Here is the input.
Amino acid sequence: MLETIAQLQIGEKGIICDVSLDKIPLKLLEMGCLPGKEVELLQKAPLEDPLYIRVNGSHLAIRVETASQIAISKI
Amino acid sequence: MSKTRSITVALVGNPNTGKTSLFNQLTGLNQKVGNYPGITVDKKQGVCELSSNLNASIIDLPGTYSINPTSLDENIVYENLVDDQNPDFPDVVVVVAEVENLKRNLFLFTQVKDLGIPTVLAINMSDQMSRKGIKIDIKALEVALKTKVVLVSARKKIGITELKEVLRNYQDLNTKSVADVSERIHGYFFKRIQEALPHFSTYKSWLLISQEKDSSFITSEEQEKVDFFKAKFEKIKKFQHKEAIYRYQVIHEILKNTYSVNRTEGTDLRGKLDRILTHKIFGYVIFALILIVIFQSIFAWASIPMEWIDTGFARLADFAKAQLPHGKFTDLIIEGVIPGIGGIVIFVPQIAILFMFVAILEETGYMSRVVFLMDKIMRRFGMSGKSVIPLVSGTACAIPAIMSSRNIESWRERLITILVVPFTTCSARIPVYTILIALIIPDKHYLGIFNLQGLTLLALYFLGFFAAISSAFLLHKTLKIKNTSFFVIELPNYKIPSPKNIGITVVEKTKAFVFGAGKIILAISIVLWFLASYGGKDFKNATEIVKSQTASLELSEIELSQEIATYQLEHSYIGKLGKTIEPAIEPLGYDWKIGIALLSSFAAREVFVGTLATIYSVADEGENTATIKERMRSEVNPITGGKRFTFASGMSLLLFYAFAMQCMGTLAIVKRETNSWKWPILQLVGMTGLAYVFGLIAFQFLK
Here is the structure.
C-alpha cells in the first residue's frame, strides 16, 4: 500500500512517487515537490498540523490535508 | 557633453534571498516607494549610477517562486515581465538567488530566461560558501546558463561593482533560452500556439494560456485566441506538471557539473532553534513574551518623545502667535494647521517602534515560525496561520496589514482576515486612547511596576484582539464561501537582522504613513477651522449679543472675550452641524463638540484629538496656548456643572473608538482588495453599530 507524507513520523524520510495537480497546488511542484525527490518530516506543529518538511533543499510547512495527497514510499 | 541614458533593471527572486538588501546596496537611500496604478502594493524603485552617462532605474519586484502567480503580489512580477508594453518592462533582469538553495532559485531563472529578456544571475550570500562547504564553477555555470553569473554578498558589499559592470554591458548578454519547454512538452501543441499568436514568443503565449485568470494587458482579439487553447483545461494542467519536471531535470544536469556541497557536520542551528521556537509549550510562551516586550516598549519608549512633541507643538503655536501679524491667516496657522499637524506627528514614535519590531521579526525568519505555530488554531476561526502577520501589523496600521494578507492562498481565509483586521488596535487609536485614559484613569501604581493607565491600555488591546477573533469565528460559521484552501510557507534560515535594512524599512513605512494620513488630517483641520470660524447672522453679531446678555454680570475683559468665543463656536457652521447630531449621541454621554470630532474621525481616527484641539483652541482666548490635555480636562458639562470627560463618558468614548470603523483609508483598501463595496459597507455598518451599542451600555451603566 502506498503511503503519504502525512503518515511519516518525525525524522523519517520517503521518496515521492506521485503528485497530481488536481489535488495539490502548482506552487508546490514548482518548489520541487516532484516524483523521485526525497522528503523528510522534520517536525509537526504543536497540534499535529501543519507539517514541517524538507524537500528538494527547501524547508516548507504544509497542511496535513495537502500532505495526505502526496504519495511516497518510505526509506 | 554626453547625455545621460537610463535603463530599467528589475530585481526578481525567491522570498528570503536578500533581494531587498541588494536593492538597498544598489540604490542606497536613493529610493522612492510609490504605488502600482490601480493597486496599492508598494512599488520600490531606486536609481543607481552605472557610469557617468548611464543610470539604472532599479525596481524591486515582490518575491516569488515562479512567474505563474498565485497572489496579487506575484501577479505584479507576471505583469512586469510578460507584458512588454508595461512602462516598467525591464531592459535587463537580475535574478537574485541564494547560494544554499540554488536549485530552487534557478527554476525562476530559467522561466525568466525563456521570455527572452537579458537576464543576469546574482548569487547572493556568497560569503557563506566556504563555511557551508559550497563550491561553484562560475565559468561553467555561465556557459550552461548562457549568461553572466555574479557572486554577491549584499550584506558584506561584495560583488556590487562587478554586478554594475555586467549591467552596464547588458546589451552583450545572450537572450537564448536554457530550458526550452516547447519541444519537450508537446511539440505540436506549441507549434499551434506559435502559429496562432505569431508576434508573441512561444513561452509568453504559453504563460498567457496557462493562467487561470485572464491577463489584462492583451487585446480582445489576442484573448480570443488564448481562450481557444485555454479551453483544453486538462491538457494544460498536464503540461504544467511536465514543465516543472523538465525544468528541474535541466537544472539538475547543469548543477551536477558546476555546484558541489561538502556536507560536513555543521552546527545544526536551524534544527535546534526550531525545536525550541516551535515547541508545544515554549513556542507559545516565547511568542507571548515577544508580544509583551513589543507592547511594553511601545509605551515605555514612545511616551517620552511623545511628550516632547506635544509640548513642542504648543510652544510652536505660541511662537507663531507672537511673531506673525494678527489676522485671519495667522489664525488659520495657529488654530488650524499647527494643531492639525501636531496631532499626527505625535504618534510617529509609536508607529516607528512597531514597524521596527515587525521588520525584525520578519528579517530574522521568526515570523514564519509563528505562522507554522498558529495555523491550526487560526483555522478554527476561519483564518490561516498567515493571518497572524496582518493581525500583528494591524497594531501599527490596518492599511498595510490588509495588504499583507495577500499571501493567504485561500480566498475565504483571506476575506475573514481582511474583515476583522480593523478591530485590532491600530496606532491611530493610540492618541485617542492615551488622552482619554490620562483624563479618566488615575495615575496609580500597583506592586511597583503595574501602572493602572498602562493596564487600561493593555486591556483595550486585548479587547480589540478579542473582537477580531470572535467576529472571525462568527464569520467562519456564517459565510457561505467554499474553502479551496492550500497552504504552503517556506521556513527560511534564521538570520541576524541587518540594521540598515530595518532602518530603511522603518523610515520608508513611517514616511509613507505620515504623509498619507498627514494629507487627510491637514486638509480636515483646515476645513474644520473654516467651518468653526464662520457662521450665520448670530455668529457675526456675537459680540453685541453676548454683551447685551451679560451686561448685568460685570465680566472682566478676558471672561467676556471667552464668552464671545464660545458663543461664536456654538453658532458657527460646525457648531450647527454638531448640534444637529447631538440628540443621537447624547445617550452615549457626548456633546456637540465631541460629535464634531466623531464626524471628522470617520476620515481617520487620529483626527479626533486634532479636531478637539482645533475646536478648543478656537474657543480659547487665554494668553498661553495650553496643551490639548489641559484643555480637555478643563472642559465643563454645562448641565451637570462637572467635567465633560467623566469616567462614564470617557469609557463610552474609549469603547466607541475600540469598535467603530472610522477610517476612510481602510474602507478604500478593503474595497480594492475584495473588489466589491459589499464588504467595506458591512464593516462600516457592523463595526460602527457595535460601537454605538457598547458606548451606550457603558455610559448608561456607569453614569
Observations:
- The two ends of chain A are 14 Å apart (CA to CA).
- Chain A has a mean pLDDT of 88.
